[in-house]
């Protein structure tokens, strides 16, 4: 009698044997790799499907060149694997959809693949292409139709610009009248490395008529961007990719006679584009060239040319025109040492269109003369490269003479005057004493003397009476000089008033006020940190201020003001809110100045 242990062992042995047998049977199956055609004969307006099928997984698949056909779609890859009654079935295929390019007989040559270290080849097949047929036996799939009728194109205004010359990239989605697009989603936005970039907002997606490769299409402009290359040589413009939902008509109609559509999702890409950026020529390059590229005008002007000492005037260095206005520095004004000059206030009025930047940039200097005299402002030169003429141009301002009419003379002027006086010669003449009257008619008059009079004693006591006031004044002055914190606060408040003066004048006018306020905040950071912040994001400004160890509350207040300036463009703000923002800005600038 067989015990249960013997039955268990026997069952285990049989199971292992059967499994090994099945695996050996599977392993002993011959490797197959073959080409399958959807039809051996087709019309010129029909499509051919070619499948390369194998029963084992392989590597290094190499398709034929499909001479006489155009690849419409493929390769698409599919894999199937299953177990049926203990037998494993595996299949892998590479599929292509082909369109014939001419009538005749064509041979689709061998394809190769490496399986298990050995190279396998499919058999070649012959296909006959006849004239177009009235009703193609196999209609194109929705994916086929979408591939043929949907294209994303990046149109570049110039592929060989100079360094810092503007180029425009316009992304257009071309859609054939045979299909319709119901939705799209960006998958990959280009980052434009080695370019200064500015997006031009597309206000509305409006379809327009056009042609693509000689055929009528409708197209939509999805994105527009202006680029200024910052490096010479070959630069790549990364592709824009979209996931597009396409509705393809099927040729069938529903119960109510309405056309039926098949929906599919396609990924389209504008493709990688390369431009060749030409360096600026070194020949004849002016010594004062500072990277300006475009067509500009240059001027140096003053608000007045005659004034008194301690009065102020404004000198403006301005460049206007079309070119890379945000990407170069203005020449610095050179003034005589006798003129006190404050740090310039930068003003930018630049708009970016598809033609590039245009407008003006300027530095406004506040100048205060201390002494009487005439002070020349030396001519300034500004050089730029014009990509149209491919030549450098240098513009020079006129000399400006500042005439200070009233005020003290400088030490240099006094010494010069004394020297000139000492050098004057005296010419003697025999009649030089003729002006003396030799026979005067003298009469006695009563004379009152100042010495010993009441006025004499009052003036004598005045210095003694002023001593207590002088002591009080000196103590007050020493106290102010010793109050370091108070002095910092007073200087900070004065600086805040200086930068916010333009904004204060616009209180009550929402748009002008917040534009002036935002400019004041950026100008303050530029003046204190010696950097350009107009192109910085708020996150970058926060990072910058954290490095300067500015207190968190002060940074938050500064960022909140910038956010209010942005929100004011779209939301109503009351006069009370504007006044509150002005006071907050004054306090924030004062606090930040003390901490810096």
Automatic annotation (TrEMBL):
Transmembrane domains' residue ranges: 449-473
Keyword line: Membrane, Signal, Transmembrane, Transmembrane helix
Signal peptide segment: 1-25
Keyword flag Flavoprotein: no
InterPro entries noted in UniProt: BatD
Keyword check for Transmembrane helix: yes
Domain of life of the native organism: Bacteria
Protein name: Oxygen tolerance
